[in-house]
From TrEMBL:
Biological source species: Salmo trutta
Main localization of the protein described in the UniProt heading: secreted
Protein name per UniProt: Protein Wnt
GO terms for MF: cytokine activity; frizzled binding
Pfam families: wnt
A single GO BP: neuron differentiation
């Protein structure tokens, strides 16, 4: 997804060249249900009135805060990369579609576990991106968290609040206003599911806030500590939500349309911090345009694994092809004074296994 510098954000009166470019992009992109995720594809060339899929409230926020839209665009690329990392060894691998407003295609039209994860991690990504931009001084509307003052205590003793705490509360507040705006316009099972998973994503980022401290005193002793709260690496949020995907709970709408009921009547827990879904997922084994499945034909698999990346699971029992390829790696590395590491290029042959395509029934070849 292309992006420009933050200073390149256009106002509501962009140059004729950029306007023409975006207009052509919108005209020739296949029509489908759209979402704010497409901001990541437009990057700095944000034209709020022409971003497909924005509801009025989202468009108003875009117009008032174009610098925040740039941060959201950068964050979109980050959470999509995280999604693809988490599912790199699965049949559904969080594939994105170029020149498609929906980014993920028809797979998001189904109220499945995969949709639950995408909504949660995208909401988390907005919180992370906005909070980080606030702390780095990139936005006019927010800065560090100024509310943490005075003394506090942890398991290491007393400390003074100082430094620059990440303003997670502002990130959550803006993400809720922007991301949830579309879902709050309707009251059906899918909208309620999305709102629930959006909240889980936002809270996941806050869950991993960590205390960072600086020591003061003679020779670096910790006679006095100054501490602040900082977000953890986004990978921790991705790992957490990936586990929540594994344990996601199937739900149905209650009779009065005000909430969820767990489909499993024997379920005794709470859905508050769990991802929820309404429809079962397809198996993603075969190409199915209606379901948004790209199939697994040609996907690389691990012959020796019995997990989701193993050839038996990944290839859905169709078998796999093996090809010998040359691999070049760095080897015999030595430290050279001062200060470099010199390595040789070593070549070896390895087997790469890829899933076989689906075999057509014999009777189709007779017609």
């Amino acid at each position: 997804m292309a992006t420009g510098s933050r200073n390149g954000i256009l106002s509501r009166h962009p140059s004729r060249i950029y306007f023409t470019f975006i207009l052509l992009l919108l005209i020739f992109t296949p029509r489908a249900d759209s979402s704010w995720w497409y901001i990541g594809a437009l990057g700095a060339r944000v034209i709020c009135d022409n971003i497909p899929g924005l509801v009025n409230k989202q468009r108003q926020l875009c117009q008032r805060h174009p610098d925040l839209m740039q941060s959201i665009g950068e964050g979109a690329k980050e959470w999509i990369r995280e999604c693809q990392h988490q599912f790199r060894h699965h049949r559904w691998n969080c594939s994105t579609l170029d020149r498609d407003h929906t980014v993920f295609g028809r797979v998001m039209l189904h109220s499945s576990r995969e949709a639950a994860f995408v909504y949660a991690i995208s909401s988390a990504g907005v919180v992370y991106a906005i909070t980080r931009a606030c702390s780095q001084g990139e936005l006019k509307i927010c800065s560090c968290d100024a509310h943490k003052r005075g003394r506090a205590r942890d398991d290491k003793g007393d400390f003074d609040w100082g430094g620059c705490s990440d303003n997670i509360n502002y990130g959550i507040k803006f993400a809720k206003a922007f991301v949830d705006a579309r879902e709050r316009m309707v009251k059906d099972a899918r909208a309620m599911m999305n709102l629930h998973n959006n909240r889980c994503g936002r809270m996941a980022v806050k869950r991993f806030m960590k205390l960072e401290c600086k020591c003061h005193g003679v020779s670096g002793s910790c006679a006095l500590r100054t501490c602040w709260l900082a977000m953890s690496d986004f990978r921790r949020t991705g790992d957490y939500l990936r586990k929540k995907y594994n344990t996601a709970i199937e739900v149905t709408m209650n009779q009065d349309g005000t909430g969820f009921m767990v489909a499993d009547k024997d379920f005794k827990g709470t859905t508050k911090n769990e991802l929820v879904y309404v429809e079962n997922s397809p198996d993603y084994c075969l190409m199915d345009r209606a379901a948004g499945s790209l199939g697994t034909a040609g996907r690389v698999c691990n012959k020796s694994s019995r997990g989701t990346d193993g050839c038996e699971v990944m290839c859905c029992g169709r078998g796999y092809d093996t090809m010998r390829v040359k691999r070049v790696t760095k080897c015999e590395c030595k430290f050279k004074w001062c200060c470099a590491v010199e390595c040789k290029d070593c070549e070896d042959m390895v087997d790469v296994h890829t899933c076989k395509p689906h075999k057509r029934p014999d009777w189709l070849d007779l017609t």
